[in-house]
Amino acid sequence: MTPLPIVYHPDYVAPLRPGHRFPMSKYGYLRQALTARGLLPETGGFLAPAPASIRQAAGVHAFAYVERVANIGLTAEETRRIGLPNTAPVSRRAFLSSAGTLLAARLALEHGLACNMAGGSHHAGPEGGAGFCVFNDVAIAARALLDEGLVRRVLVIDLDVHQGDGTAHIFAGDPRVFTLSLHAEKNYPVHKAQSDLDFPLPDGLRDTPYLEMLDHALARTAAFHPDIVFYNAGVDPHELDRLGRLSLSSEGLRAREARVIAFARGRGLPLAGVLGGGYDDDPERLAARHALLFEEAARAMAA
Ligand SMILES: [Zn+2]
User: Which of 294, 195, 302 minimizes the C-alpha distance to 253?
Assistant: First the structure.
């Protein structure tokens, strides 16, 4: 039995000023949570990526923007849109987490399933970053696999509570990539993009109708026949999330992860899971929500 391949890098955690709105500490807490659950050993046990290349990042973002990220030369307006400081650790983290998602995808092609303990930066679009997202890691990874000829068609399942607008913009008009987004209609971003399939959801939606909608949405992708699935498992649809507007319970989130994984495995599709959003003032509680993806993925691999 192959254990679940888990991608992580200690530099996924970049220092921010105290009290910053972005819950940077969750990546370290998640590592502890996965160790506590026996999914990682006390030390190591994960695969660490080397940073993505400028060329890979420029596969989906404007070259000049990628250069400004690399050179810590973002404009004040770009920095404001991203909401993270224009520092070397934040830049390095963007190159690392993008490469981490690509590594998870390669591992998924080999082993059927793999997860990156970061990524899901789905608001970053062709011209630049936004909403805590510097680079669109899923788009960078998908484009790299397509360019290398490792896959011909890619399905992106984005269940973060915010719309995957950057991903939708990047792949608009590209028939090789199918983008599916279930999101809270009234949440950020104000101006939604057009995914191949969008399911805007009403505030306060609870487990049962959400899961029914998910089943319906997954069934609607049946005609596409991808070679790989990227899954943005943002946990911000949770009822206690600070930014989400939906009302999923932790058990609802667990059922969601199980369904997406079963959908892919039932069709023999490799699935690369990425973390996505999740906002809670209690980082341990938040890490436990993100751990659900890894628990369900490990369970599926053991089955
Ligand atoms: Zn989100």
Answer: 294
| Strand residues in the chain grouped as ranges (E) | 6-7, 113-116, 154-158, 177-184, 197-201, 228-232, 271-274
Q: Is 138 helix (H, G, I), strand (E, B) or coil?
A: helix
Say if 81 falls within a structural domain. Answer: yes
> How many angstroms is it from 163 CA to the middle of ligand 1?
8
CA of 2 relative to ligand 1 center, distance in Å = 31
Tokens 């980082």 locate to 283
Q: What angle do CA 76, 122, 96 make, to 5 degrees?
A: 75
Judge whether 188 lies within some domain. yes
Distance 168 CA to ligand 1 centre (A): 15
- pLDDT reported for residue 2: 78
pLDDT confidence tier of residue 1, bands split at 50, 70 and 90? low
Inform me whether the pLDDT recorded for 212 exceeds 90: yes
- Distance, CA 101 to ligand 1 centroid (Å)? 17
Range of the domain at 187: 6-13+23-302
Distance, CA 132 to ligand 1 centroid (Å)?
A: 9
Give the distance (Å) from ligand 1 centre to CA of residue 21. 13
Q: How many domains does the chain have?
A: 1
Residue 219's pLDDT is: 97
pLDDT tens digits, 221-265: 989 999 999 999 999 999 999 999 999 999 999 999 999 999 999
Cα(149) to centroid(ligand 1), Å: 31
Indicate which CATH number applies to the domain containing 181. Answer: 3.40.800.20
Average pLDDT, the chain: 97
Distance 268 CA to ligand 1 centre (A): 28
Question: 126 pLDDT band (50/70/90 cuts)?
Answer: very high
193 C-alpha to ligand 1 centroid (Å): 15
